Amino acid sequence: MADAPVPAVPAPLELAGYAPVYSGKVRDLYAPLDPATGAPRDDLLLLVASDRISAFDFVLDRPVPDKGEVLTRMSLWWFEQLADLVPNHVVSTDVPDAVAGRAVLVRRLEMLPVECVARAYLTGGGLREYRTDGHVSGLRLPAGLTDGSRLPEPLFTPSTKAPQGEHDEPMSYAAVEAALGPELAARARDLTTRILARGNEIAAERGILIADTKVEFGLEGGELVLADEVLTPDSSRFWPADQWEPGHPQPSFDKEFVREWLLSPASGWDKASGEAPPPLPDDVLERTRAKYVEAYERLTGRPFAAGPVA
Ligand code: Q0Z
User: Fold this and answer.
1) I need a labelling partner for 281 at 20 to 30 A (CA). Which of 135, 145, 171, 303 fits?
2) pLDDT tens per residue across span 45-91
């Protein structure tokens, strides 16, 4: 008998009163059912963060305890910090018990067909572009920058929304203007860079640098609304400020123990093999949980406690 196909992501949780809409690598979307008709509502979504973690483009076998809750709370806290810059999609944190603390009910928006990325430090794809010709996303940068250099100001470096499993491609600002019109494009650009600048003003005081971030906007009454998750380690690169040293790749605030173990002889894994990585040991999961909690507590100044959002 043929083997059953291996699912890319586990089946989403069955939540009474909600229908699954979409599952990403580490999060799931549901539509609340209208109690009168049983039909899915078209105006609301339940956004559920799982404890799954990805590394080297693989979703790992074992969850990081509390990761979904930590990231959900962090995102909610950032929405409050950013509320004077941009409205957001949050409706309520009153959610089913099974997903308490890691789900948010949101307004369903018309999402922009552009990944809005801003970079405050040079690394990753931005660094590769810079090394080619001294430009990033069509913007000329000073000479002499290296991996981890702080940029003079946050840059808007949009990308295309790639289908699941594919990598986003850089998009020119002209292409963003063509997709959104010049007014909306400029508004998305300015908001994206201001969100990252504000994020870093707050985070740097608390020992974290946010190298870059991807934000999602939707439209409501012609205005941009901040959606999805914002300024979390899953949507952004978080670096420990006290270890920042341009000239080489910076350690990840949250995933350093995961990457270190996977690349160590202890894992027995060969990154170049194309094989899925082995399951992380308990101590790596526990130390990684502690890094997510540390990021939350440092940023917010609040102790992390699992359970329903107050
Ligand atoms: C977010 C995503 C996933 C979580 C669509 N307010 C909104 N209105 C309409 N669409 C979205 C949102 Cl947040 C939306 N995503 C990304 C995928 C789990 C978030 F599987 N996709």
Assistant:
1) 303
2) 999 999 999 999 999 999 999 999 999 999 999 999 999 999 999 99
Q: Is residue 98 within 6 Å of ligand 1 at its C-beta?
A: no
pTM exceeds 0.90, yes or no: yes
CB of residue 51 inside a 6 A radius of ligand 1: no
Nearest atom (ligand 1) to Cα of 24: 20
Nearest to 176 by CA among 86, 115, 110, 87: 115
Cα(249) to centroid(ligand 1), Å: 31
Q: Is 214 in the pocket of ligand 1 (CB under 6 A)?
A: no
* CB distance 219 to ligand 1 below 6 Å: no
Return the closest-CA partner of residue 56 out of 248, 202, 259: 259
Contact 278, 267 (CB under 8 A): yes
Per DSSP, what are the bridge partners of residue 239?
A: 209
